[in-house]
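Entry 14. Ran structure prediction on the chain below.
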Amino acid sequence: MSMHSITVSPSKNANGVIEWTLTYGSNSGTNGNYPPVDLKHGGTNERFRITLVDSTYGITFSDDPLWIKEGSCPTTSGINSKQIDKYEPGQTIVRFRDRNENAAVTLWYRLNFNVPDLNPGDPGTFLDPEIRNGGGGGTGGIGITALAIAVGVAVLGYVAYEAFLNN
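Output, structure tokens:
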């Protein structure tokens, strides 16, 4: 299990428009050119902590701060992926857990903010980076069944071999 810390910071350009900087590790990006989060194949229960850094503009996460969709940018509210199994919204910190199981998939997420003097959905009130799940981290029913069969065959083989030697 790994912890992925992401920060988002607003600033205003010369025209007073909110622009966002997203930082993940040593990578930062602005204006839709955000660094993706690449999860390795086989990692499980990846934890995320997204922190809003705002000391000037009075911005907070909205009451519906996180939307997630597999394969494309979400256009409606909700966590539309079975990969997300724990979600804790907050005004300045959002936490969630990504199971990163089974097949690799790209999760697009949208972060929504309350920005004074702007309506929800206006430019500057959200940003939409992506998480690239490497997959393969879980052991679903098929994996457990295959392992049980393999162990059973090995045990039966050993018992048969011992019986052959002792006769």
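Residues 139-155 have pLDDT under 50 and may be disordered. Will compare against last week's run tomorrow.
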